[in-house]
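Hi R.,

Here's the chain you asked about this morning:
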Amino acid sequence: MKAMSVDRKIKKAIMEIALNPLLNHRDKNRKRTARNVMELGLSLRVRPMEIQEYDRLYEELLILLLSADKDTILEWMLDHF
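And here is the predicted structure, written out as tokens:
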């Protein structure tokens, strides 16, 4: 098992709490959910994100929202934010 830094543990806890309500309505409006999830990630990110990277991650997230479970999306967020 990989050791998790304190910073990553705090981010994970915040994301877990905030993601649940965001993902509850993803079937209703996937694009809105993706934008809200991206905003959450950006709010926890230390350095700014280039628009090209944002666009790429947004497209990845739209695909993930089709079928991925909450844990998979949480791990994706931790990896990218």
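One quick note: Residues 6-23 form the longest helix (18 residues).

Cheers,
M.
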